[in-house]
From TrEMBL:
GO terms for biological process: circadian rhythm. Pfam families: JHBP. It comes from the Eukaryota. Keywords: Biological rhythms, Signal. The lineage of its organism: Eukaryota, Metazoa, Ecdysozoa, Arthropoda, Hexapoda. This is Uncharacterized protein. GO terms for cellular component: extracellular space. Belongs to the TO family. InterPro entries: Haemolymph_juvenile_hormone-bd, To_sf.
Length: 396
């Protein structure tokens, strides 16, 4: 379905070779459905009032409809009205705009304001019928000049065109944004509803998330020189992740980044520990609990497109997690073969020095969690074609 635009006016005035007022009425804007998002930046969790940017490309944009023109082309007066066709090939556009938060039916949407547009193209073709009231010689001369000198024409009218079509793009963008809730909020809703998993999407249950094992081995030079083995791990809280950044979901993805916060991440498991912590020996096995308060994590991963059954999917190949927490609470049962006094003293020591201990364990811990998340997300990525994840819904 083409987009119908009621009115667009280009006012080109100055000392350039082209000076005219060009008006389009009730014209079709063809090609916007084939637009692809190349990049999108500036969509934080609290986006209201922030500046966002978006790059798009399209193989072809065509404007077809009635026109009226009056002005000068070089030293020659140009005038006419009739049917027009303006086609822009291989358009790459950059939009910069202010975001506004909109609440509709209890859901959060975004709208764009004060959009500024800049575009580049590989070619522009222009066809204006009935120039000079149908004078064939003057009409042919004008058409030939406009198309042979399209770069000059484009650069001359670009400031006026960017202002006029920037408003059109803002209307199109808001048309789309008004039909899809905020991507970040949508991601959170998916997480909250995915506690029991989606077998049809190859998504395993994530709350609780069950993991067979995680092994942490520290070298002898570390202040926390410990071998720590977790088994039958249960992670609670992941469905409550609050996503506040998503970047890299572009047409040809390579690097993707996600940032999220969680009030509390809880790990319960069976453990076995052997080693030393700050010169103090530690050993034991039994049940343990690790609770991270205000867990703030970022996850970067690289992907490659793979083809399967004539559809493109993405495969996660490398991932890296980094996180911070305001507090780590630890409770290891049955330390020192069940000696209650030694066990209580060690747990107290661990919790009083949680920051030092976490700093030493974090590299191994982040590698383990990153691999767990990679396994989780690889399921849906292998099931859903990437264009269904990437493309915005159609505008009706």
């Amino acid at each position: 379905m083409d987009l119908k635009i009621k009115n667009a006016t280009l006012v080109q005035e100055g000392r350039g070779a082209i000076n005219f007022v060009l008006q389009f009425r009730d014209f079709d804007f063809i090609g916007y459905r084939d637009s692809k998002i190349l990049d999108a930046r500036g969509w934080p969790e609290n986006f209201d009032g922030t500046i966002a940017e978006m790059s798009v490309k399209a193989p072809k944009f065509t404007l077809i409809g009635p026109y009226t023109i009056n002005g000068n082309l070089l030293l020659l007066p140009i005038q006419g009205s009739g049917t027009s066709n303006v086609t822009l090939n291989n358009l790459v556009g950059r939009m910069k705009f202010r975001l506004k938060k909109v609440i509709k039916d209890g859901e959060v949407y975004a709208s764009a304001e004060k959009l500024k547009l800049n575009i580049n193209i590989s070619r522009m073709y222009m066809e204006f019928e009935n120039l000079f009231n149908g004078n064939p010689e003057l009409e042919q001369y004008a058409k030939q000049f406009l198309n042979e000198n399209w770069k000059l024409v484009f650069e001359d009218i670009k400031p006026s065109a960017m202002k006029t079509f920037g408003q059109i793009w803002q209307d199109i963008l808001n048309h789309v944004l008004s039909r899809i809730p905020c991507l970040i909020q949508s991601s959170e809703e998916v997480l909250r509803s995915a506690g029991n998993g989606f077998p049809g999407l190859n998504l395993i249950p994530i709350d609780p998330l069950r993991v067979d094992k995680v092994d942490i081995r520290q070298n002898s030079e570390s202040p926390v020189n410990i071998n720590l083995f977790f088994r039958d791990i249960i992670l609670n809280g992941l469905s409550q992740l609050k996503v506040y950044k998503m970047q890299g979901f572009v047409e040809n993805p390579r690097k993707i980044e996600m940032r999220a916060r969680l009030d509390k991440l809880v790990l319960n498991a069976n453990y076995k520990a052997r080693g030393r912590i700050l010169l103090l020996p530690i050993n034991g096995e039994g049940k343990c609990n690790l609770t991270f308060d205000n867990w703030d994590a970022g996850w970067r991963f690289t992907v490659n497109k793979v083809e399967k059954n004539n559809k493109e999917y993405v495969k996660v190949e490398n991932s890296k997690l980094f996180f911070n927490t305001t507090r780590l609470h630890m409770d290891f049962e049955n330390l020192f073969n069940g000696d209650r006094a030694l066990s209580d003293n060690m747990n107290q020591f661990l919790n009083e020095n949680w920051n030092v201990i976490l700093t030493e364990l974090k590299p191994a811990l982040t590698d383990a969690i990153s691999q767990i998340l990679q396994n989780v997300i690889s399921g849906p990525f292998s099931k859903i074609p990437y264009n269904e994840l990437f493309n915005a819904p159609e505008v009706n």
